[in-house]
Amino acid sequence: MPGAPPPAAVEFAWDRSINALAEIGTHRLDLYAASLKSELGRYEMMPSIVARQESVRALLGAMPDPAAGLLQTVNTYLDAVNHEAGSVAVDVIDQHGLVIAASNWNRPESFVGTNVSYRPYFQDALAHGAGRFFGIGTNTGMPGLYFASAVRDAGGPIGVTAVKVSVDALESAWRTPGEASMVIDANGVIVISTIPAWKFTALRPITAEQQHRIQASRQYAGRSVEALPYRRLDDWGTSAWFARFPDWAHPGHERRYLAMSRTAPQAGDSILVLLDIAGARHQQQIALAFVTGAFLIVGLYCLYAIQRRRAIAEKLKAQDTLRSANDRLEITVRERTAALTQANERMRQEIVERTRAEQLLRDSQQEVVHAGKLAVLGQMAAGLTHELNQPLVAIKTLCENAVTFFERNQPAPAIGNLQRISRLVDSMAVLTSELKTFARKPDFERVAVSLNEAVTHAVLIYEARIRDEHVQLDVLIPAGTTICAEPSQLQQVIVNLLGNALDAVAGQTERIISIEASRNEQPGRVLFSVSDSGPGIAPEVLSHLFEPFVTTKPRGHGLGLGLAITSRLVNGFGARIFAANRPDGGAQFTIEFSETTAQETANGR
Ligand code: ADP
């Protein structure tokens, strides 16, 4: 914000204006003094000229009884002189103060017959030869300047001549707007004034003695002289001062003026000029407004410059902040990108490793499955040998008998033997084909498989053992139950469970194996179970039954892979396997399969 304008600039404007005004005042005083001198000087000598007039002297000499003709001559003379000079009136006064002749002898305002001995101009003229004063005509009531001169003869003064001059012309010539000009007499009373209301007011207190004298001389037509409410303020240089006067333009108000005065050409009087300082104040206000405006502009410009500089600084700071934020961001992005790249790389390697591990696992799983199969095959080998040996022995016996029957020419029993041989071969073929299917590496295509068919094929594998060991096998599977599985794997699962059940019941007095299936409460699920009347699952293996190489069987009889393979295959079908000991003895293995729909069944085997 710009501060207050320095007073010096405004003071300068003020000084300049007041100095200019003072210069005008000086001119006015010069002019008014000159005009006063020339105007009044014209009349100053007039009374003494009139006093030298023979008829006037004769008239005064003839007093108190002059001839009527002489009086008329003097009156006429005075009227002519008055007219010629442009004065108000010219009077001839005898030595007692009685007006005996006058220019206006024939008019009502005439002083003829009036005694003016109390008038100072008369007294001064009589005493000193000449007199002069400002006064108001007692008859006319008009203010004017009186000049008087004594009329003498050899014996001394015999009378006085007086000339009254109007100051109206002066006043109107001096009247200038914004100014008041006046002449102040020796009493301090304003006798000439361009402000009519101020005339015959005093600029200084009138003492009682002065008041008395004024009253006695009737100088101001008997009026009491009031003081003009005026206050002198501070000086301006040596010739001027400020003063508070009534505002002539606005009665009832006061106003400050620049006052200047000088002594008037006539002794004891002075001329006073009052100059309205409104113009100077106006100049001062203009200067103030200009300075204020200039300061405001400068201030605004400074403000603008400061704001601009601040805005630029802030902009630069913001740019810096943005740049460093960008840099930080770039660094962070670079770091994060590097971390991400590393993480990606690690993840990629992990994926590769996992893929490799999965592949390895799959391979080894398949290998394990295959190995399990081979193990089962190994176990089955003895049984198979026995199984195949029996029909082979039977076939050999039947062949030999058939040859004997043909030699005896008994074709019918021979043909019967051949037919039995053919059936035995068929059953052997079935055995071997099942073995082939089992040994094949699994594929993973899941289809709808009939549970009954899968169980039948599995049972076929153990048919001889079931029969030889006198095991009671109860199969209770609702017709048409199909589940979602890979057929050969499903067969292997059932073979494993059935094999374990046969192992469990072996040596038991009661040897019962139940294979059952039922629909679960949950729609679309089938519960398949293999239960036996064996001793049940040993408690030490129950919790980790499905882990590889967990077995309670003697060396050479069990690898502990059967249930591990079974569990993985079952999981591969999207099914789940559970093992538990039944409350009434024996073990029970349950698989929860997904049931396939009729449509899937149609597409399946
Ligand atoms: P293995 O038959 O070679 O031992 P498995 O994985 O098939 O391997 O079986 C692991 C073990 O589970 C068996 O050794 C046995 O202790 C137990 N087991 C499996 N089935 C039965 C069952 N039906 N009754 C009692 N125990 C069983």
Would you write up a description of this structure?
- GO terms for molecular function: ATP binding.
- With 605 residues, this protein is α+β, with helices and mostly antiparallel strands.
- Among the domains are: 45-166, PAS domain (Beta-Lactamase, 2-Layer Sandwich), CATH 3.30.450; 169-276, Beta-Lactamase (2-Layer Sandwich); 443-603, Histidine kinase-like ATPase, C-terminal domain (Heat Shock Protein 90).
- The chain contains 15 helices and 20 strands.
- The chain has helices at residues 7-44, 46-52, 54-61, 68-85, 120-128, 168-174, 208-217, 278-407, 411-439, 451-461, 463-468, 487-505, 539-542, 562-572, 598-603, and strands at residues 89-94, 99-102, 130-136, 143-153, 156-165, 179-184, 190-193, 201-202, 226-227, 231-236, 240-246, 254-263, 270-276, 447-450, 472-476, 482-485, 512-519, 525-532, 576-581, 587-594.
- The strands form 5 sheets. Strands 7-6-13-12-11-10 form a 6-stranded antiparallel β-sheet. The chain has a 5-stranded antiparallel β-sheet with strand order 2-1-5-4-3, with helices on both faces. A 5-stranded mixed β-sheet has the order 15-17-18-20-19, with helices on one face.
- Helix 8 runs antiparallel to helix 9.
- The two termini are 101 Å apart.
- The model is unreliable at 598-605 (pLDDT under 50).
- Adenosine-5'-diphosphate is lined by residues 496, 500-501, 504, 532, 534, 536-538, 541, 545, 550-553, 558-563, 587.
- Adenosine-5'-diphosphate (ADP) binds at residues 496, 500-501, 504, 532, 534, 536-538, 541, 545, 550-553, 558-563, 587.
